[in-house]
Inverse folding.
């Protein structure tokens, strides 16, 4: 962990906030909340790419997740929800859709973040 990440984590623990940081190039995760701090090393995953069933359900053995895709009239997911829900404009999507492992050069910026907490490989 970098000095900055250590400061963020220690301040959050002292202030009673829950959270997590991925460190060491994505190989270590530090999670904290309540009375616990958990540090774990992530297992290396072989690269993968699987199609999503749209509409329908797709099970990911790699993530241990179930993806559910459906059409809706909602214009966007509520960014205040504490979930992994996302909404997309179907006119902007080129099918077929897939989920895959992270590749070098990938990046993401969670809604509302302006730099701190962004992920880049």
């Amino acid at each position: 962990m970098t000095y900055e990440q250590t400061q963020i984590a220690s301040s959050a623990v002292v202030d009673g906030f829950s959270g997590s940081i991925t460190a060491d190039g994505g190989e270590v995760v530090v999670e904290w909340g309540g009375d616990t701090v958990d540090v774990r090393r992530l297992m290396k995953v072989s690269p993968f790419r699987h199609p999503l069933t749209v509409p329908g359900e797709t099970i990911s053995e790699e993530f241990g997740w179930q993806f559910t895709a459906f059409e809706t009239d909602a214009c966007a997911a509520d960014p205040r929800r504490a979930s992994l829900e996302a909404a997309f404009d179907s006119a902007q999507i080129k099918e077929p859709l897939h989920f895959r492992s992270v590749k070098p050069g990938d990046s993401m910026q969670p809604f509302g973040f302006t730099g701190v907490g962004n992920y880049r490989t």
Remarks:
- The chain has two domains: 3-41, 45-102.
- Residues 48 and 72 are 29 Å apart (CA to CA).
- The longest strand covers residues 28-33.
